[in-house]
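Worked problem 6 (solution included).
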Amino acid sequence: MPRPIQAHINLSALESNLHVARRATSARLMSIIKADGYGHGVLRVVEALSASDGFALLDIQDAMRLREAGIRQPILMLEGFFGAEDLALISEYNLTCVIHSAWQLALLDAYPKSGKLDIWLKVNSGMNRLGFAPNEVAQVMEQLHRHRAVREITLMTHFANADEVRGVAGPLALFNDIAAPYRMARSLANSAALLRYPETHGDWVRPGIMLYGASPFAETSAQQLGLQPAMTLRSRIIAVQELRAGDEIGYGALFRAEHSMRIGIVACGYADGYPRHAPNGTPILVDGQRAQTLGRVSMDMLYADLSKLPQAGVGSAVTLWGDGLPIEEVARAAGTVSYELMCALTDRVPVVV
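Solution. The predicted structure is:
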């Protein structure tokens, strides 16, 4: 009998969340499917999001798999190419590339076909991660317009604070000033900007976390946004311990019972992708009822407080996040973000669709 932990992927939820994005904008949708579709499985995600106008990821091997699976929409390489040897594959598989640095410009001459490569030119509007500085854009644009390989150019940027109180006003104004002389497509909005700042929508939006059913905002739930969780991580209780006052549990004895209580041992740990740093009180569901974790998460197991759930015992169903327990709530309790929890799911966890 297999270990009881499973990740359940709801393809209908992915489709529904894409419709939420579609209703929010008239721009084309470049669905972000990097990190193996945020841990959901890139091929199954693309199947569920087939109504997208394009897909964006990082790994050229994944892009090749999509083309070989029959995907014909534009596929955008979000970090572009990493060496001249990539350009032959980019040409063969008709991929679109972000250009964000001068060293990539220097490699463009290796592209094997004239007038066939579509480029997204990335502008650094304040995040200071990738992209050309504002004072470099005009010169780079001139080089790209002259280059024999380049076909179409889209201007893009990425917001650092679209999900925060600071918002996008400054970076948006800067980007608009830079883009003003050019008549070409623009792409600015991630999930947060798509939902909150329609003035950023441009020609392409790039929804990511919202497609997987998590809110990009700390103060607004996914349910309030009309989003459905696409991933539910489930397991079961495999043992029960009766504690007396003063008993301690787990590595480091991070929890000490103040009175008699029952705890359940759940078949889930950090080797499955559950955060080791999740503190006492991180929410879980046991038989559909709210409970909390206790003690330190170990490699294969964690502790659940069953004190208020007398019916719970060995075999009781446990939801770690997902349906009935928003992943962003678990992430917030663990001091991280829902993106990390989704992407951290390990290969040893069976996936059920």
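Discussion: The longest helix spans residues 11-24.
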